[in-house]
Amino acid sequence: ASLLQASRASLLQALGEKKIETQRLVVLLATRESEQQELQRQLNSALEGWHTERGRREQLEEEVASMFRDKEEEQARRRARELETSRLKRERALFESQLAEATKEKEAKKEERREEKRRIDSLRNELQALMEESEDFMPLLVQEGAHAR
Q1: How far apart are CA 22 and CA 11, in angstroms?
Q2: What are the Cα distances from residue 66, in Å, to 52, 60, 63?
Q3: What one-character DSSP code corresponds to residue 70?
Q4: Can you tell me the distance from the alpha carbon of 90 to that of 49, in angstroms, rounded to the nearest whole number?
Q5: I need a surface site. Which of 1, 5, 64, 141 has the fewest CB within 10 A?
Q6: Is this prediction's pTM over 0.70?
Q7: Where would I find the H helices in the chain?
């Protein structure tokens, strides 16, 4: 009977712990649901603001469009296009001159590299010729060295 009571007490304690854990999870779930509701409210508020702003923007765009229909505005737009075209032409001319200069510099560097390569090849050929000549004279130098000793 004592074993039964101990087992029962152990089961009651485990049940109590599970109950506490369940209560903690219920509180956590309620907190999460509350946070989710707040986020949903913020999202709805942001969407409402976006729709309101969108409506204002569309209204402003319509007002601007009606102003541009006016003859004076059309002339101003034409003048702005002419100025933009002129600016783009100047920028293009500048770009083309910079491109030409860069191309010229690139060609000059290529020519320098070719000249350096020619100089290296020439020096390499001279060195090869000297080495071949020195091979011809090497036995004579060895003999002279042996006589000098």
Answers
A1: 16
A2: 21, 10, 5
A3: S
A4: 44
A5: 1
A6: no
A7: 2-68, 71-148
